[in-house]
Each structure stands twice: as C-alpha cells, then as structure tokens.
Amino acid sequence: MEGLFLEKRAAENGVRLKARGCAEPRARGRKHMLRLAMPAVSCVLAVIPDIVLPDAENLVNVAAPQPLFRYFLSALAVIFAICMIRALYRAEYRVRYLAKAPFYAVLVLVLNLISIATKKCSFLPALYFPTFDRIFNVFVDEAMVLLKCTGYSLRLLLYGISIGGLSGFLTGILIGWNKKANYWLFPVIRFIGPIPTTIWIPLAMLFFPTLFQGAVFIVALSMWFPMAFLTSAGIQSVRKSLFEAGMTLGAGRLYQIVHIAVPAAMPNVFVGIFMGTVSSLISLISAELIGARYGLGWYINWQQQVMNYPQVYAGFLVIALLCFVIFKAVFGIRNRVLFWQKGIVRW
Hints:
The protein has helices at residues 2-52, 68-89, 91-120, 132-141, 143-177, 179-192, 201-207, 211-236, 240-248, 253-287, 296-305, 309-337. By secondary structure, it is mostly helical. It starts with a helix and ends in a 10-residue tail after the last helix. It has two domains: 2-140, no CATH class; 142-341, MetI-like (MetI-like fold, Orthogonal Bundle).
C-alpha cells in the first residue's frame, strides 16, 4: 500500500511540474511582448497629452506653426512598432531589442515630461527653455544654414584629425622604436602635450596666414598628442620575443615595424584615435570662435548672443548627432581591424 501511495504522489507531482513548465513559457512570452511594446506604447502615451492638454497662455505669441514634436513622436511610434514586429520573428534581434526597450520607453517618457513642463504648464522660462516644437522648427526654417555650418565643421575636423592623427602616429612610432628619438622628443611631448589647446589660439592667429589654417592647427594639435603618446606606449609594450623571432627568421627593421610593432600596438592606437577625436571635437568649437564665418561652434555662439535659444538647442542636437556618427564609424573600423576584440568595447 505504501508503494502505491508513493507512486501516486510521484505521478501527481509530475503532472504539476509539466503544467508549471507550460505556464512559465507562456508567462515569459507575455512578459517579453509587454517589454517589446513598451517604446511604442510610450510614444502613443506621449502623443495623447500633446493633443488633449491646452498650451500655456504665455506661449500663444511664440508658438511654432506646426506641432512637429507630435509628428516626431508619431514617427517614433511607427519605427518602434516595426522593430517590435521584427523582434518577434528574429531571435537574435529580439535579444538586443529586449535589452534596449526599457531605455527607449523611459527616454520618451522623459521627453514627454519636459514637453509638458515647457509647452503645457510653462514651469520653465520660455526664453531659455523653448518648446520642442520651436526647436524642431529650426531644422525646417534654417536647414540650409545648419547644413552649411555642419559641412564647414566637418571639413575643419577632417583636416585637423588627418594631419594630427598621421603626424602623431608617425611620432609615436619614432619615439617607441628609436631610443635616441625617445630621449630627445619624449620630454618635448611631455611638456607641450598637456597644455590646453585653447592657449595656442593667439599664436595660431599670429603665425598662420589665414584663420582657417590656424583653426586646423588647433584641431590637429589636439589629435597629435594622444596619438603620439599612446602609439609609442603600445610599441614599447610589445614583447621582445616577437622581435627576436622576427630577427631569427631574417626580418629587417622596416619589416619588424610594419608587420610586428604596429599590429601589436593597434589596440593602443585606437584608444589614441578615440581620445584624440574627443579632444579635437572640443577644440573644434573653440577654434571656430577665432573668426570663422561658418561652423557649428560659430552658429551656437552667434545665436546665443542674440538670445535665440531654439537655434542654440538645435545646434547642440546637430553636434550630438555628428559626434555619435563619428564615434560609431571609429568603433566600426576598430571592430574590423581588431576583430579578435570585437564586442569588448562598444559605442
């Protein structure tokens, strides 16, 4: 009798475990569906108060001609809905989107709260904190000016990064490989490199024939120091056994530099590129204040002087988007070159 009783209890427990196993995937599936839908739902919930709630009375004379923020939220809702549908059918994409969905939803919620505080309740001073509609309207009314300023800044940045990056890379190889060059040049780098680049603006205006060339010098100097320092550190950290093995196999000095030292130092080189690009972007804004006719730094400074804060915030958004694209490209190149370190550092 006791054996039959134990078998019956075991069978009942087996049925319960099976039922629980069926319920858990369903519950997990519902949880994943809710998480996938969070960004799109957050956009829809943000559109509702923008339509229902009336605008603040003191904003009637400065209201934007079109509710562009509402259109922006509607477009985001469509994009998030497409991403949700894609995540339902692709497991690899679903894992990535599930991790980012709560952040997107909270970000839209924060933007909605800021919109309510500025446009509906006017809790913040309208002069310094314009509505999102007025900020987005700048991209419609002054699109050509922003494009021209962005192109000017990109040209200056590319010139400076190219010149400073190449010269810093070669300087780093020279210092890291040659002891005599290290003896004479490294103290100079230690003395000049940490000096803020804005200190060089008066000298750049004095020694260069045009303001553009002076601005390129300021940006290039910001790129040169981290590239030279980190490239030399990367080459000096290469194991000596690699060079000894190359010499044993008959490799010459140039071959060892190109095929052993530089590839082994590439992780440090990309750190130098990243840090140099950050410094160059900071110096770019300062360099455009020494007399440039166009540029994002010039545009923001000009609009701030005349108290046009919607244009100021629009310039900030363009700079943020530009920095995101540049660093995304840098890390994309890094992942291709250092494919064995892909995913360790992401942007």
